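ok here's the first one, seq then struct tokens
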Amino acid sequence: MRPGESELARTRRARRIVRELAVTYPDVRCELDFTTPFELIVATVLSAQTTDRRVNAVTPTLFATYPDPPALASADPVDVEQIIAPTGFFRVKARTVVELSAALVERFDSQVPRSLADLVTLPGVGRKTANVVLGEAFGVPGITVDTHVARLSRRMGFTESNDPVVIEKDLGALLPRRDWTLASQLVIWHGRRRCHARRPACGACPVDRWCPAYGEGPTDLESAARLVTTEGRA
């Protein structure tokens, strides 16, 4: 956090950053492909420790084969493994999505629940996945604390914590509830495209004037521009 910065000043700075990121990334969206809440929750579970691109490459086959919770709940995990292998950790993920589907069938009439309290009772679903589903599938505002949101929240001085629950609370206090889902996606896009973990593109950053970590990466435009990616990194 900026030394001596008041809560009001931090709130104003956070909201300026979100507004500027919205201008920078006007096409921001969830980068996982889905058509139903069920597809989104499964895709989000599969996205752990891999890229959205790899998940999107396997889900068309997965959902063509197992289009709904009853179908995936009755699947042989070995068959699921063969489809999702490119996402990594495929044995654990296959077992998890089969168990998740079974829980939806048994406890929620094959429907993805619309509350955080219910979502986090499902196998493989924590607050991060639950907030993705709530925000993207149901329009319920939520802050998704993935690795990018956690890293940038500390880098930009919005939190001092490494605990995702605390980070979620700290960001929620700074931003209007209606903006939580959008802000999460904007920060994720910024982390994937410019504010990289090792060499952030500081000299090509649209929010450099409000960032206390400015200078961690190259500040000249030419060097920084070479670090900017048009598609997100993992």
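and now the second one, same deal
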Amino acid sequence: MITPAYVRTMARYNAEMNRRLYTAAAQLTDEQRKADHGAFWKSIHGTLCHLLWGDTQWMSRFSDWPKPEVPSKQSATMIDDFATLRTRREKADADLIAWADRLDAAWLAEDLVWFSGAAQREMRRPLGFLVAHFFNHQTHHRGQAHALLTAHGLETGDTDLMLIVEPA
């Protein structure tokens, strides 16, 4: 379904887009970042927290990352301090790139079996399929955060994959 080169490309795109979102979000006050704008995770801060939560949850299944400290429903409030959230995001992105750089096609072809809290049952899916979902989840919620930031008049520059990173 996907290749290690795709995973490496998407990990780098993810890191760059997160850098741009956090740079824009840092221009807002804490009150502005945490204001409920009616988004699924309510606020810019909540959406950014959920993104980190989702990445941490999937990487706890894909690699040796610890599981998030809160359940999904509390993910928007997982980290209250923006500077701490940003620092953890930067570390997660660097760790994600390092993980992607070690990945091989054989691993992507394996199945993962886990208990899904969302589905409340044991699941089995190919890792390549799940990694594609992982990047899709990131793009989806980054789009929400981007819309909230642009509503505040902030810019992140181009968001198109082909303009941001070179293919791996």
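notes on #2: The mean pLDDT is 96. Residues 115 and 122 are 4 Å apart (CA to CA).
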